[in-house]
Design brief:
Blueprint lengths: L7 H10 L3 H12 L15 E5 L4 E5 L5 H9 L4 E6 L4 E2 L2 E2 L5 E2 L2 E2 L3 E5 L3 E7 L1 H10 L5 E2 L5 E2 L1 H8 L4 E6 L5 H9 L1 H5 L8 H13 L3 E2 H7 L5 H9 L19 E2 L3 H13 L1 E4 L8 E4 L2 E8 L3 E6 L4 H12 E2 L2 E2 L12 H9 L2 H14 L7 H10 L4 H17 L23 H14 L7 H14 L7 H10 L3 H9 L1 H4 L24 E7 L4 E2 L6 E3 L2 E7 L4 E8 L5 H15 L5 E4 L8 H9 L3 E4 L9 H13 L23 H4 L4 H15 L12 H12 L11 H6 L8 E3 L6 E3 L2 E3 L13 E7 L2 E9 L2 E6 L10 H19 L8 H10 L4 H20 L13 H5 L15 H4 L9
Parallel strand pairs: 9-12, 21-26, 26-27
Antiparallel strand pairs: 1-2, 1-27, 3-8, 4-7, 5-6, 8-9, 10-11, 13-14, 15-18, 16-17, 17-18, 19-20, 21-24, 22-23, 24-25, 28-31, 29-30, 31-32, 32-33
Helix pairs in contact: 14-16, 17-18, 26-31, 29-30, 29-31
């Protein structure tokens, strides 16, 4: 599918804007250039890979709060024809604060092709713009209209007749952002989504009869209509909702209208008059409600007319009467009486402790006994007789002075205990020496104890002839000279101090980080289970295994999981996505991952782009960005793993570990048995337990979201041959050349099928795939279908990609020692011979045992019946997913012919 400005459309665009030749060359260079940089999670930001429908490729956003918000805005802006991320750098020129000329190279976030103009856009948080304006006053400025500008960027863009805009975070409309994310599944396939005429007429009739009906009431009134059809009607503008003001994720306060003119008419009518029954009041009375002034312009025993001049009276009128009407009358509350307290007096009263207030009341009872008449006053009167008259006279004087100064005499009776004692001055020499010693001898990575730092302080005080302070004073200053977070960072590092780091509190309501429906957001991550496993055949200890788990963050439901002995890799990621599609028939709209290399692999990103899945990369060492999954890992350990024999709790304190508590001697669990137990815990126990953050079980939350927010069945993915091939890796180029009589070569191995005998196929390059769990089987795309290819060497049967890598490394190492060269060519014959003759190598033997256990566990996770002794067979053949080439079956349309891979750069 072509972009809006491909081909001759770009020349037409140049002529319409009357751009110079230099500007045309610049814009052509921008469209042809790859992104200047790849965004990363460097300073707490979360970069996003967004599958843009407008651009038909992946557009990257460096931040999920500013850049991605702007990207969503231009994605739904019809005036924007194209948007390109990270355009080539431009050179700016400006004067710094010292008057020196600076000419830095600058990479803007986006370059826009609008209908009537084109130019660069730089997105920044408002706080960052304020900081930059202070550091570089000539780089960023705030004009008289309150709009941020970049004069150096505008000067450079003006040379080519273009613009340079600055997009600040305070320009984001978060209600519109929330609605675009809620309807994203429908916008991606809006052309092929339809609504039956009878259903549309029913919805239109209901909304026309009750204009402004809330979305929740509309769903209840038309309970036979699926939520998907209502969402499609809103996305296609068949029903009108002001998406810039109301959120679809809050249906109880989102009004729905037949059309936009109807909505304006209702709002205009409510801006003039609003009637309510059973109200009696006086004409002309003013009523204050939610910051608006309502005037009673006419009242009868049955009705009353209110006039409001507010900006949004429709939203106020819906709830104003219910709150103001009491027993058929308007409750006109008198304005609160002005307080006699001064600002200083109120501050002293707020700072007073409970014991101080009690003391002040006691003193007031002593000097004003006529104000009290209770039993407590009688007891105080006996004690007051023992108080000196001079003290009472002092209290009365302070009472009169406070009454004149602060507006209340009780403030003068407050004790001043907190102001007593010796107060250190800022330049107090012993205190300055304490802070100096703490900076140089305590707040260091050496992590010296307090006693050692105090010893250094005594030596330095003696050298400077200062009277040292007591250890108690020194230790007290240690606790309060820095915050817990700052002190832990200085002594133990940022990771250890992360639990004490302040939470980021939003100044305004943005969008939910967990998504606003069931499949809006998922978290994908790995963890090494604290459980020692053994071989199911020999009983030999194999060590710990890795769990790759994907959880839906909105309902907290586990979508898929995968167990293997291999360390995290793209194979584990693709296996989890494959199991998710097999179980639910779809993938989430967005996936949050960390910065691991397996999540940046070509195969993983290509699969997400193929099915239009948005990727969010959370910052490094920031577990709070993946809190649903991190919390699930903790619950899994305490509620499940620590109840199994062979868990590694004893190894957390090695010196206390004995032979009787050694996990390796207690290991009895195998990987297939653990897979069955994990499946039971995830699907039967965890899903049926009440989640404290949801107030219900994850299963109930998931089903409720599907019924309320829509099942979105149009996003379903068939677990067929096309999807399976998309989860298989390929070569670096993605293709291989068909050599006559030999076949294709993939990862040192040669593959052959009968279709390669065709003379028209020989010498051509075809798409290839291979199974990472059994490299003896490959696939070639010939004549519009995937062909199963076999490796001529039977030694590779059941050999995984991981084992093949170990074989290749070991063989290269031996050849290098023998030949004395750095690069030694490896052939498949050498690999086959090496695997057959050196099967007793420890690393290779261990990997073969791991692969055998992983295949057995995969059978359990895919829902197939596991035999007592898992056979060494290829997983696809065991599932019956691939039929022999000679078998006849119904010919399916090839999805790869018209399937668009949303990649900015061709893989």
């Amino acid at each position: 599918m072509a972009r809006p400005l491909d081909g001759i459309a770009l020349l037409t665009y140049f002529r319409r804007l009357k751009l110079s030749k230099e500007a045309q060359e610049l814009l052509t260079h921008i469209r042809q250039s790859p992104p200047s940089r790849t965004p990363g999670a460097r300073r707490g930001n979360m970069p996003i890979w967004y599958p843009s429908k407008k651009m038909q490729c992946i557009i990257k956003a460096e931040s999920h709060k500013v850049e991605f918000a702007f990207l969503l805005q231009v994605e739904h802006d019809d005036d924007v024809l194209e948007v390109w991320d990270q355009p080539p750098s431009i050179q700016l020129e400006y004067q710094d604060r010292r008057g020196r000329t600076q000419r830095p190279f600058h990479t803007a976030d986006y370059f826009l092709f609008r209908y009537k103009e084109a130019g660069w856009v730089e997105c920044k948080p408002t706080q960052e713009l304020i900081r930059q304006a202070h550091i570089r006053p000539n780089s960023y400025q705030l004009d008289e209209q309150g709009k941020w500008r970049c004069p150096p960027g505008e000067a450079f863009a003006a040379k080519y007749g273009l613009f340079y805009h600055v997009y600040a975070s305070d320009q984001v409309n978060w209600a519109a952002q929330d609605n675009w994310l809620f309807l994203e599944d429908y916008y991606q396939d809006l052309e092929r989504l339809t609504i039956p005429e009878t259903t549309l007429e029913m919805l239109y009739r209901q909304v026309s009869e009750y204009p402004g009906i809330t979305l929740a009431d509309l769903r209840e009134a038309c309970h036979d209509v699926p939520a998907d059809l209502i969402n499609i009607a809103i996305a296609r503008h068949a029903l009108y909702v002001d998406l810039s003001r109301y959120r679809l994720s809050e249906p109880w306060q989102t009004p729905v209208f037949p059309s936009r003119p109807d909505a304006r008419a209702v709002v205009h009518h409510s801006n003039q008059t609003t009637s309510a029954p059973r109200i009696t009041a006086l004409t002309g009375t003013m009523v204050s409600w939610a910051g608006q002034q309502w005037q009673i312009s006419g009242a009868t025993p049955t009705t009353m007319t209110l006039t409001c001049e507010g900006s949004d009276p429709f939203a106020l009128a819906r709830s104003a009467f219910d709150a103001l009407v009491q027993d058929g009358k308007i409750a006109l509350h008198p304005p609160p009486a002005p307080s006699n307290f001064t600002r200083e007096g109120q501050a002293l009263l707020d700072a007073a402790r409970d014991v101080d207030l009690a003391t002040a009341v006691f003193r007031n009872r002593v000097i004003h006994p006529d104000q009290y008449n209770d039993d407590e006053q009688q007891q105080i009167a006996e004690h007051a007789a023992t108080i000196p008259t001079r003290t009472k006279r002092s209290w009365r004087q302070r009472y009169r002075e406070a009454e004149e100064q602060y507006g209340s005499g009780l403030i003068g009776l407050l004790p001043q205990f907190t102001h007593r004692g010796r107060k250190w001055e800022a330049d107090f020499a012993p205190r300055k020496l304490i802070h100096e010693m703490l900076e140089t001898h305590y707040d260091t990575v050496t992590r010296k104890p307090k006693r050692g730092a105090y010893g250094e302080y005594l030596k330095r005080a003696e050298e400077q002839q200062l009277a040292p302070l007591s250890p108690r004073t020194f230790y007290r200053e240690v606790e309060r000279h820095k915050t817990v977070y700052e002190q832990t960072v200085a002594r133990e590092g940022t990771r250890a101090a992360y639990p004490f780091k302040e939470y980021v509190r939003e100044q305004e309501k943005t969008v939910s980080r967990h998504g606003n429906y069931a499949w809006a957001m998922a978290h994908l991550h790995h963890t090494e289970l604290n459980l020692i496993l053994c071989d199911s055949r020999t009983g030999q200890v194999l060590g710990k295994c890795w769990l790759t788990l994907m959880i839906l963050s909105h309902p907290r439901r586990i979508a898929a999981y995968y167990l293997t002995f291999d360390p995290p890799s793209y194979r584990s990621c693709l296996a989890v996505l494959r199991l998710c599609v097999k179980r639910y028939g779809r993938l989430p709209t967005a996936i949050t991952v960390d910065g691991g290399p397996e999540f940046q692999s070509v195969y993983f990103e290509q699969l997400l782009a193929l099915y239009r899945v948005r990727k969010h990369q959370r910052p490094a060492s920031e577990p709070r960005f993946g809190s649903p999954q991190e919390r699930l890992f903790g619950s899994m350990e305490t509620e499940f793993l620590y109840h199994l024999l062979g868990n590694t709790q004893a190894t957390q304190k090695p010196r206390l570990n004995t032979r009787a508590t050694d996990p390796e001697r207690q290991a009895v669990w195998t990987l297939p048995a653990l897979a069955e137990r994990v499946q039971q815990w995830a699907d039967e126990e965890y899903e049926t337990m009440r989640h404290p953050a949801l107030g219900r079980t994850p299963r109930e939350a998931y089903e409720l979201s599907l019924s309320r927010d829509g099942e979105r069945l149009h996003k379903s993915i068939e677990y067929d041959d096309a999807f399976l091939k998309a989860t298989f890796p390929t070569t670096r180029k993605g293709t291989a050349k068909v050599e006559p009589g030999i076949g294709v070569r993939i990862n040192y191995l040669e593959y052959w099928c009968e279709a390669m005998r065709d003379p028209t196929v020989e010498g051509t390059r075809v798409k290839v795939r291979y199974d990472p769990f059994d490299v003896s089987v490959g696939y070639a795309y010939i004549d519009g279908r995937w062909r199963t290819c076999d490796c001529p060497y039977t030694e590779f049967a059941g050999c995984s990609e991981r084992e093949l890598q170990l074989l290749t490394e070991e063989l290269r190492k031996r050849n290098r020692l023998h030949a004395g060269r750095e690069h030694i060519e490896v052939t498949q014959k050498q690999l086959a011979t090496f695997r057959r003759e050196n099967a007793d190598i420890e690393a290779i033997l261990r990997q073969q045992r791991h692969d055998r256990e992983t295949r057995a566990a995969q059978v359990v996770l895919e829902g197939r019946k596991r035999s007592p002794t898992p056979p060494l067979i290829e997983p696809l053949q065991a599932q019956g997913e691939m039929e022999p080439e000679s078998s006849e079956k119904r010919k399916k349309s090839n999805p790869y012919e018209n399937l668009l891979v949303l990649r900015r750069i061709e893989l």
